[in-house]
Automatic annotation (TrEMBL):
This is ADP-ribosylglycohydrolase. Keywords: Hydrolase. It comes from the Bacteria. It comes from Thermomonospora cellulosilytica. One of its GO terms (molecular function) is hydrolase activity.
Length: 41
């Protein structure tokens, strides 16, 4: 069970990291100030 919880935690971390990295794309930087999510890729 602890291994499964660790894997779920890492999956959530990877999703958050992927979303956060989208704000470093120059075209999406204005969205960060307006608190809007980036468009889906």
């Amino acid at each position: 069970m602890p291994l499964q919880r660790a894997l779920v935690s890492l999956q959530g971390l990877a999703i958050g990291d992927a979303l956060g990295s989208q704000f470093f794309v120059p075209a999406n930087q204005g969205l960060l100030a307006s608190h809007e999510p980036p468009p889906p890729t």
